[in-house]
Amino acid sequence: MAINCGYHDDTDVWHSCADSAFWLRFILDSQFDGLTGDHPHGGGSGDPDPAPHDPQTSSPTPTPDDCHRFADVVAEIAGRNSNAEDFMNEMARTFTTANDSTIAEMRRNADNALPVGRQNFGDSGFKSRFQDGSSQVRHFVGGLIVGYRIGYEALPAMDLREILPGGTMADLRLNEYSMAAWGASMDPSPARYTATAGGPMYLAAHPGYMGLADLIRRDVCN
């Protein structure tokens, strides 16, 4: 006995199993279960699915890695602070063991465990050159604060710590960004001209702490 395999489309045209359109419909129906009335492979009860699955909403949202989660929180902190000082203080009490970003407070709490309620981070999502298996978020923020409070002059001392036993090259590389490149320039500044020996020089606007999250995503995260 011959077996008819296929389906009738909306115009009552029969598509057999040998028709490529049949298999396209089969694949779509298999991937997106619940397409109302679409059962080209012979399945279905004949009743419309009362709750079709939406592939854009039914899939679980992947958990962000440490680096991108860090950048997202930095953006939130920047959005609710109106100056670099308040921003840096909240960065300290969010990502480190300190309660503000003063050097005295950072030193006092340098070796303490994170207080209850503060988020733990590792180094997932960081570029491989910045990974060492430890909390690179905490190290980044520490360097950022030193750069903000002391400036570029602190870079040799910070780097020396990473060259000595217990330090890592990943931390040393991260210092170049957190402290040297960004920490000393957290204050936003408007576009302006400045006087030089060769005449006026145009300086573009600098977003300071408001642009830090984007810089982290661009230069530190994978």
What is the total domain count?
A: 2
Give the % helix.
Answer: 40-55%
Biggest β-sheet, characterized? 2 strands, antiparallel
Give the H and E element order: EEHHHHHHHHEEH
Overall structural class, as computed from helix and strand content, comes to: mainly alpha
Low-confidence stretches: 17-51
Query: What's the total number of strands?
Result: 4
Return Rg in Å.
Answer: 28 Å
Give the percentage of residues in beta strands.
Answer: 5-15%
Query: Number of helical segments?
Result: 9
Q: How would you classify the quaternary structure?
A: single chain
Topology diagram in text:
Blueprint: E1 6-8, E2 14-16, H1 20-31, H2 55-58, H3 66-79, H4 84-95, H5 103-108, H6 136-149, H7 155-163, H8 169-182, E3 192-196, E4 199-203, H9 212-219
Antiparallel strand pairs: 1-2, 3-4
Helix pairs in contact: 3-9, 4-6, 6-8, 7-8
